Amino acid sequence: MPYCTQCGIQVGALDRFCGECGAQQAAAGSAGGSAAGTPGGATRPAGEVFSDIKPRTAAILCYIPWFGWLVAILVMASQRFKHDTPENNDTRFHAFQGLYLFVAWLIADWVLDPALTLAVDGARMFHMGSPIAGLVKLAVMAGWVIMLIKTSRNQRFRLPLLGELAERSVNEQRG
Predict the structure, then answer these.
(1) Is residue 136 a contact partner of residue 111, using CB atoms and an 8 Å limit?
(2) Three-state helix/strand/coil letters over the chain
(3) CA 134, 138, 164, 53 torsion: positive or negative?
(4) Higher model confidence: residue 114 or residue 127?
(5) For position 133, what pLDDT does the model report?
(6) 125 pLDDT band (50/70/90 cuts)?
């Protein structure tokens, strides 16, 4: 399915103009189609890496442990997912929730672990890490796995606290 050369929203294969922004589209069936999947050989807008990927796939990629935050940022910056449609709102929700899940990992790894290790170990040279930080990291790992499974089954699942934050963030973007 082609996308608008101007705003990135999905357009029909035979549409001459975008229904969202009104931009003229390349002639349907022209031989100038590009490998990137944009109509008429038009170049992909800067930062538009998701023009050929399904919204559900983009949502799943937001939950890849330790790397999903990069995809989440790209989804939030993508023009394709900025339009207020249920499918785009769902993908942005998963991007925010995946990003907040990664932030929870960073807090456990960079804040809780060193702070609680110093409090427990004191003057010891070697430490195994804080058990509390380890439990938080385990919970985040479980969250990543649960969300990979739920999202791959096309289920919208809100994690406690993080899902609420993600929902608020999507609503703030709307208006």
Answers:
(1) no
(2) CCECCCCCCECCCCCCECCCCCCECCCCCCCCCCCCCCHHHCCCCCCCCCCCCCHHHHHHHCCCCCCHHHHHHHHHHCHHHCCCCHHHHHHHHHHHHHHHHHHHHHHHHHHHHHHHHHHHHCCCCCCCCCHHHHHHHHHHHHHHHHHHHHHHCCCCCCCCCHHHHHHHHHHHHHC
(3) positive
(4) 114
(5) 87
(6) very low
CA distance 71 to 11: 24
Determine contact, residues 130/113, Cβ cutoff 8 Å. yes
Count of CB atoms situated within 10 Å of the CB of 104: 18
CB under 8 A, 24+ apart: contacts of 111-115? 112/136
pLDDT over threshold 90, residue 34:
no
- Encoded amino acid at 19, one letter: G
Which residues have CB under 8 Å from 87's CB, separation 6+?
55
Q: Which residues pair with 3 in a beta bridge?
A: 10
